[in-house]
Specification:
It is a single chain. The protein is mainly alpha-helical. The chain has helices spanning 23-39, 57-70, 85-97, 108-120, 136-144, 191-201, 217-226, 257-263, 267-275, 290-296, 311-324, 327-340, 348-358, 365-376, 384-391, 396-408, 415-428, 434-445, 453-478; strands at residues 9-13, 41-47, 76-80, 101-104, 150-153, 160-164, 168-172, 181-183, 206-210, 233-237, 240-241, 307-308. It starts with 8 loop residues before the first strand and ends in a 10-residue tail after the last helix. The protein binds one RNA strand through helix 4, strand 7, helix 6, strand 12 and helix 11.
Length: 488
RNA sequence: GGCGCGUUCGUCUAGUGGUUAGGACGCCGGCCUCUCAAGCCGGUAACACGGGUUCAAAUCCCGUACGCGCUACCA
């Protein structure tokens, strides 16, 4: 049965703060977010920082920032698992008192030796109650001496079955499971102890997490049973792979939400893209808002095989959002990029007009900011490789000067008169309009391609146009003469 | 090694016994056009392999190959 309750659910996203929020983690958060929106209930954010060595407070903050940026909101938390250690110990003690867990006195070295020996015989060492490699007398001695011990969970002897919303019915034989450690010899709870204790205390109903936890799930299922608590419904998501078909890593490109943000990807695009990496609405829709997805989200349509992260498609999707989002929604996200481009002051109708001219021509916010720069920048850095062709045209400077003069005398700096003036001049010179259109585009934008020229000029305005035309003329004058000889 | 999970165009996916195997990204071509995008139109390209079951299999079963996960006093 894959039925989802129609009653409110409680989901949680539980990252460990050992690094930036990974896109895999972000996608997990997104599915939790979508399911909670679809069915109602609560989203709990829980930071699993029980590994003190690797956890970092800055990362805890960063993860929250990244989540908020991408548009995932939580109703409860963030709870720091490290602040609940006492509760986790208490829960372990309950199991101990109830005989569902026991003390074990082997040292890590002894355990390692056992594992090595088992492997040498081609087998696998399993730690189970009553099968301690230590003699009863030795155990008694260590207990009596107050030697350090771990608390182990007594794993049941029957196969453990559970239903996974993505995988279907899954069964693990008892031989595959150890009596896992609940409390380390220093008394600190392990991940498994903390997760189960928290999921029970927080009344979590649905656990959506990465496939790497599938093999942990039978352990957790057994523990829920030991506590007499109903196990939550599980959904284990397939991994996200890099273009090399290996687990996504920095080797093949960006992996963290932060990196994509820095590249100029919109949060709406990343959310949309990630959501579709392992889920589809069932029809052919791809561009969908969070609300649209939430309206039709179902775990039934979660995919069960790994997906390769395709940066090209993300770029396309980002371009779609940049082209269609209301300017007001786009601007706040663009701001940091404008600032980085030295355009912190750019604003107003000119900026909006320029944005409209370039938004369908950029893939990222960084591209957009760069494209809009010439409208506000004092100068343009011309690339000699792109201007060499113009520098070779002897009559061009004179024609450009004449054009500048005619444009200057225009009553209105609008598309039609600008175009008429340029075409008339070209006609007088017996040239096609391209004779001036292309060099002027280069002069005003530093690029050989871009928006329709007269739109560009009108938005640029008389001052910037005159200024850039002037410096382009200077650039041409300073350009080395065309190579003589071969080719001519 | 053991246990678990997976495998449809290069990539993301639709498909749940009968389809010309659909859509999207990418790529190629066309239209539009002052160029480039966008948009529109068209093209390219897939059921990992081998056995079954069945009148009929991408869909069900078994095996093989390949990939991945777990196998810690990490999470």
């Amino acid at each position: 049965m894959t039925t989802e309750t129609s009653t409110p659910i409680r989901v949680r996203f539980a990252p460990s703060p050992t690094g930036f929020l990974h896109v895999g983690g972000a996608r997990t958060a997104i599915y939790n977010d979508l399911l909670r929106q679809r069915l109602g209930g609560a989203f709990i954010l829980r930071i699993e920082d029980t590994d003190r060595q690797r956890s970092d407070e800055a990362m805890t903050r960063q993860i929250q920032d990244a989540l908020a940026w991408i548009g995932v909101t939580w109703d409860e938390g963030p709870f720091l698992q490290s602040e609940r250690l006492e509760r986790h110990r208490e829960r372990a003690r309950e199991l101990l008192d109830g005989g569902l867990a026991y003390r074990a006195y082997e040292t890590p070295d002894e355990l390692e030796a056992l594992r090595a020996a088992a492997r040498a015989e081609g087998g696998e060492f399993r730690y189970r109650a009553g099968r301690s490699p230590l003699a009863a007398a030795e155990i008694a001695r260590r207990a009596g001496d107050g030697d350090p011990f771990v608390v182990r969970f007594r794993m049941p002897d029957e196969p453990i079955r559970f239903h996974d919303l993505v995988r279907g019915d899954v069964e693990f034989p008892p031989e595959a499971l150890d009596d896992l450690i609940l409390l380390r010899s220093d008394g600190s709870p392990t991940y498994h102890m903390s997760v189960v204790a928290d999921d029970i205390d927080m009344a979590v109903t649905h656990v959506i997490r990465g496939e790497d936890h599938l093999s942990n799930t039978p352990k957790h299922v057994a523990m829920f049973a030991a506590f007499g608590a109903p196990a939550p419904t599980f959904a284990h998501l397939p991994l996200i792979l890099g273009t090399d078909r290996k687990r996504l890593s920095k080797r093949t490109g960006a992996t963290s939400v932060e990196e994509f943000r820095g590249q100029g990807i919109l949060p709406q695009a990343l959310y949309n893209f990630l959501a579709l990496l392992g889920w589809s609405p069932g029809d052919d829709r791809e561009l969908m808002s969070r609300a649209e997805m939430a309206a039709v989200f179902s775990t039934d349509r979660l995919n069960d095989s790994a997906a390769v992260f395709d940066p090209d498609k993300l770029g396309w999707m980002n371009a779609q959002y940049m082209a269609s989002l209301p300017l007001a929604a786009l601007r706040p996200h663009l701001e940091p990029f404008l600032e980085a481009a030295g355009l912190a002051a750019a604003a107003g109708p000119r900026l909006d007009a320029a944005l409209d001219l370039h938004r369908t021509r950029a893939r990222t916010l960084a591209d957009l900011a760069a494209a809009v720069k010439p409208y506000f920048a004092e100068t343009i850095d011309y690339d000699p490789a792109l201007t060499a062709g113009f520098a070779a045209q002897e009559e061009l400077p004179g024609d450009l000067r004449e054009l500048a003069a005619r444009w200057r005398s225009l009553a209105a700096f609008d598309v039609a008169p600008l175009e008429d003036a340029l075409r008339a001049l070209c006609a007088e010179r017996g040239a096609k309009a391209g004779h001036l259109i292309h060099p002027v585009r280069m002069a005003l934008s530093g690029a050989k391609a871009g928006p329709p020229l007269f739109d560009l000029v009108a938005v640029m305005g008389p001052e910037a146009t005159a200024r850039h035309l002037e410096s382009f003329l200077a650039h041409l004058a300073a350009s080395p003469p065309p190579a003589s000889g071969a080719g001519g």
